[in-house]
Amino acid sequence: MNLKLTIVLFLCSIGAISAQHKKWTLEECVAYAVEHNLTVEQYELDLKNAQIDKSDALGALLPDLNASSSMTGSTGLSFDPTTNEPVTSTILSANGGLTSSLTLFDGLRNFHRLNRAKLNALSNQYRLDDLKDDIRLNVANAYLQILSNKESLKVFEAQFAVTEQDLKRTKELVEAGVLPKGDLLEVEATAANLEQQIVNTQNQVLISRINLAQLLQITDYENFDVLDADFEVPPSEVLTKSPKEIFAEALTFRNDIKFSKSNIDLAKKDLDIAKGAIYPTLGAFFNYNTRYSDQGGFNTTGVFVPAESFVNQLWINDGISYGLRLDIPIFNGFGVRNNIKRSQINVEKAKLQLEQEKLDLETNINQAYVDVKSFSKAYEAAQKTLEARRLAYEYSKERYEVGLMNAFDFSQAQSRVDNAEAELIRTKYDYIFRLKVLEFYFGLPLELK
């Protein structure tokens, strides 16, 4: 029994350790951020409120029904509710009833409110989806920043390993009298500089991990990490599209555009509701009432008759009333007219906001397109620069090893290679992110392969 318990605890501990050291993919980070973001949760609550408003609007089209009852005891002069005659004794009475009313016509305002509530729920859904889109882009940017910093760290660590070998070889040459001691000091300075760059890059990796963890609402920064992978620049069909084609496609699915269009529809419904106040309101009502009194009375022969039972009086003393009510607006201090004018202005403002959103979207797409082209060229230039720097470094290394170059010039050649590799990594991930942004505007999912 103890052996089984030990095995179970051991397996649980392994599961806990593996969960702590989970490596997150971009897709997992995006999904987790969308699910746990606090602003998303707030917008989801707003969406639930909008759905409740839709239920309220639907209920306004239905008749209401309310019940009421009361029981009263009085001493002295009072009126018997069953006979409306004054009595001077102690009396116990009760009243009860049902009331129902229904709006038959109100300028179709209730129908417009129902349609508005449906549109408002849809608008809140678009706003929520637009927020999720922004989160996805922010997470992708933070994720790629971690990968860029990690790859830079690998480069510096590899360069430091090479420099350690150079340091060992230089010591041997200095001890053999082939090189002056100054060359050894120069190589040692290069190694120290690389160590400093490694420390700085390690800090950058940590900070970028923390930034992404905060986007995901994860507080366990130490154990949070992303999947180690060296992503190459992916091929993309979006590069075959023009900015106009990408913009035209974006207009068909972008949630910010849908949100702005829904705001126009909402403003139009508000205008319909405001116009409905011009018309008369016609309503119907129905009331059922009954009453009870513990007071008896004298009949026509002068004999005192005790009060009927409570149940019998409910049937004997009940009654109904029903009817119609018509309210005609005549003058209300220009309130209705001014509300209509305000609603008309809001419609125009919503239309202008949509046009502004379209202009912003087109500007962002053009900027993203230019960024992709410029960062593509920067990445190609960085590749050529690194290739040239490496060739120059190999040539310098050969000259340094035979004593035709001093340690300072050799360290400069190596430093230029380090800078070129760091620039290549930076431009590569900058290019990947800009490419993903352009793909995102075209409707392609955020994926790294």
What keyword list fits this structure?
449 residues; Outer membrane efflux proteins (OEP); four-stranded antiparallel sheet; two-stranded parallel ribbon; 10 strands; 13% strand; elongated; disordered N terminus
- Radius of gyration equals 40 Å
Give the integer mean of the pLDDT values: 87
Q: Judging by the overall fold, what is the CATH architecture of one domain?
A: Up-down Bundle
Structural shape: elongated
Give a count of the beta strands, DSSP E runs of length 2 or more.
Answer: 10
Helix content: 55-70%
Write the element-wise H/E pattern from the N-terminal end onward.
HEHHEEEEHHEHHEEEHEHH
CATH topology heading of one domain:
Outer membrane efflux proteins (OEP)
Biggest sheet strand order reads 2-5-7-10
DSSP helical segment count: 10
Low-confidence stretches: 3-20
Structural class: alpha+beta
Into which percentage range does the β-strand content fall?
Answer: 5-15%
